[in-house]
Design a protein that fits this description.
- The complex is a heterodimer of chains A (126) and B (333).
- Chain A has 126 residues and is mainly alpha-helical.
- Chain A is built from 5 helices and no strands.
- With 333 residues, chain B is an alpha+beta fold.
- Chain B has 2 domains: 107 residues, Phosphorylase Kinase, domain 1 (2-Layer Sandwich), CATH 3.30.200; 214 residues, Aminoglycoside phosphotransferase (APH), C-terminal lobe (Aminoglycoside 3'-phosphotransferase, Chain: A, domain 2).
- Chain B has 12 helices and 10 strands.
- Classes of the chains: A mainly alpha (126), B alpha+beta (333).
- At the A-B interface, helix 2, helix 3, helix 4 and helix 5 of A face helix 7, helix 11 and helix 12 of B.
């Protein structure tokens, strides 16, 4: 990692450039500028929260599956096991992991999504 | 085909469409950038009041097989069949033969209103019609589903199991590893209902394809390219997928209404009994299908076929589907 500029400074610079030119754009270009700004938001949140989310997922997967490995390998293995029926009688344990992963991911991808608000409200309701 | 060639072809066609010499085409403009269909608006003009029309055409070089969509002549026939039953679909003026020079295309009347879901769900302008929309959607779906299948052009059939198998195969082809989608495929397959009454389905009945007028409500059902035959509950569930509620999570029907209103409208208009359970099953399957569609659209970016930032970003909408699927599973689905 380096500074002068940091990755965050570069993101800010590109974001403010898009903000600056957006009013001059029309129709599809204006739409794509909004999408581009949203994409930078995703990158910003992934830089800030992604590695922690991965660490949490890895810890959950190790417990759930009783196996070692990095998060990508465990995740791929989980897909195979689900498909093979290994969780058909452990639905609750699986769903706990899936819920936590989905919440972490949508927080990065679309933090304002209504389904996230609903999931979080459910989690805090006794 | 470029815009000027299209305009020239529409100009030649104008007197035929108006059924009178002296008319020409004006204000030709592209409306949607759909990958499988082009939609153009234009006006017929002479000295009288202009008539606003819509041209739907298949982009050059694409066939319906590329997208599993119906031929445009089938779309036109279904729109007319539903219209004859009193359904809100625009009048089809002409299914274009090759000599019109427009390729595979048809021309229909322009419907008045708004299709943008965000405005329909949130804008004050639609506050007066919103409370009746879910019921009206139920009525219109009953009308579409009641269309006799005899005499319709050939259509594919798809049960819940067929849909799950098809979308699972597509998902496997993308190489993505998404445990929520895996679990949803498995749960939905294990709980697949026995096929219900087999009816004509619109196939994409949701915000974006529904023309809503601020006073008259639902004025037109558009985009029939995914029409097929299958379970009635499929169309009802698709309308309830959270991805087109535009933030109005508490109003499951399109972000504007309640399940009960949708079902009441459906039943009162003569629809066969459909249970809330079946609607919710198909809603979950609908979310899963939308997730796979997002992956497909991202693939268009990854393969270089469509290098737009929009196509790149749509892959990040898969997590919205995942949280919706988790919420549904927690509710027992």
């Amino acid at each position: 990692m380096t500074s002068h500029p940091t990755a965050h400074e570069l993101l800010d610079a590109v974001a403010s450039y898009i903000e600056q030119i957006a009013p001059k754009l029309q129709n599809r270009d204006a739409f794509l500028a909004r999408v581009a700004a949203n994409a930078l938001g995703v990158v910003r949140r992934e830089l800030a929260e992604g590695s922690q989310a991965d660490r949490r997922a890895e810890a959950r997967l190790r417990t759930l599956m009783g196996e070692d490995g990095d998060v990508a390998a465990l995740n791929a293995r989980l897909c195979e096991q689900i498909r093979a029926g290994a969780f058909d009688d452990r639905e609750d344990a699986l769903l706990d992991h899936l819920r936590a992963s989905a919440i972490d991911q949508v927080r990065i991808d679309q933090p304002g999504y209504s389904g996230l608000t609903a999931a979080l409200a459910r989690a805090t309701t006794p | 085909m470029d815009e000027s060639a299209l305009e020239a072809a529409l100009n030649r066609l104008a007197p035929i469409l108006a059924n009178e010499p002296g008319w020409s085409a004006d204000k030709v403009r592209r409306l949607s950038g759909g990958a499988s269909q082009e939609t153009w608006a234009f006006s017929l003009v002479r000295d009288a009041e202009p008539r606003n029309l819509i041209l739907r055409r298949r982009p050059d070089g694409l066939s319906e097989r590329d997208n599993r969509t119906v031929p445009l002549s089938t779309e036109a026939a279904l729109i007319e069949a539903v219209r004859r039953r009193g359904g809100p679909t625009p009048a089809v003026l002409r299914v274009c033969p090759p000599e019109d020079g427009l390729g595979e295309a048809y021309v229909m009347a322009e419907a008045e209103g708004e299709t943008l879901g965000k405005r329909i769900v949130r804008d004050e302008m639609f506050a007066a019609v919103r409370p009746g929309l879910a019921r009206r959607c139920g009525e219109v779906l009953a009308l579409i589903h009641g269309t006799p299948l005899e005499g319709l052009p050939p259509l594919t059939r798809a049960s819940a199991r067929d849909e799950i198998e098809r979308y699972e195969a597509i998902y496997r082809g993308t190489g993505a590893a998404r445990p929520v989608l895996e679990w949803a495929f498995r749960r939905l397959m294990r709980r697949a209902p026995p096929p219900g009454p087999q009816v004509l389905l619109h196939g994409d009945f949701r915000n974006g394809n529904l023309m809503i007028h601020p006073e008259h409500g639902l004025t037109a059902v558009l985009d029939w390219e995914l029409a097929h035959i299958g379970d009635a509950a499929s169309d009802l569930g698709w309308l309830c997928v959270n991805s087109w509620r535009f933030g109005a999570y508490e109003k499951p029907v399109g972000g504007f209404g309640a399940y009960e209103d949708l079902l009441a409208g459906y039943q009162d208009a003569g629809g066969a009994p459909v249970s809330l359970e079946a609607v919710r099953y198909w809603q979950m399957l609908g979310s899963l299908k939308w997730g796979v569609m997002c992956l497909i659209m991202h693939q268009a970016y990854a393969s270089g076929a469509d290098p737009s930032v929009e196509r790149a970003m749509i892959g990040r909408r898969v997590s919205e589907v995942e949280i919706d699927l988790v919420n549904l599973m927690e509710e027992g689905l």
